[in-house]
Specification:
single chain, 122 residues
């Protein structure tokens, strides 16, 4: 059984930063690619970025490049999403997901967290 629990969401002003964490249970964490997705009210789930099991490779959606950084600590079974220069339209529920495939498609991930709300507002 693999369980993912996100934390670190909250309210931040435009231009601010937040770091989300996703703690993963299970002994095979390092074999999973870990993705981050987000969903704003009334919008479809959107790919944010993905990191390989080793942590050596990352890939981001164009709108997040240069602002968001994904990292992982396999010793702690945790993946992180560092978000800088936040904008109003970054407001969404952010989800982490784990899967065997390196993919941008949300429907190809096997495990999901419950999500954490990020609100960017002045």
């Amino acid at each position: 059984q693999v369980r993912l629990v996100e934390s670190g969401g909250g309210l931040v002003q435009p231009g601010g930063s937040l770091r989300l964490s996703c703690a993963v249970s299970g002994r095979t964490f390092s074999t999973y690619a870990m993705g981050w997705f987000r969903q704003a009210p009334g919008k479809e789930r959107e790919f944010v970025g993905v990191i390989s099991g080793s942590g050596r490779n990352t890939y981001y959606a164009d709108s997040m490049k240069g602002r968001f950084t994904i990292s992982r600590d396999n010793a702690k079974n945790t993946v992180y999403l560092q978000m800088n220069s936040l904008k109003l339209d970054d407001t969404a529920v952010y989800y982490c997901a784990g899967g065997r495939r390196w993919t941008v498609r949300w429907d190809e991930y096997d495990y999901w967290g419950q999500g954490t709300q990020v609100t960017v507002s002045s």
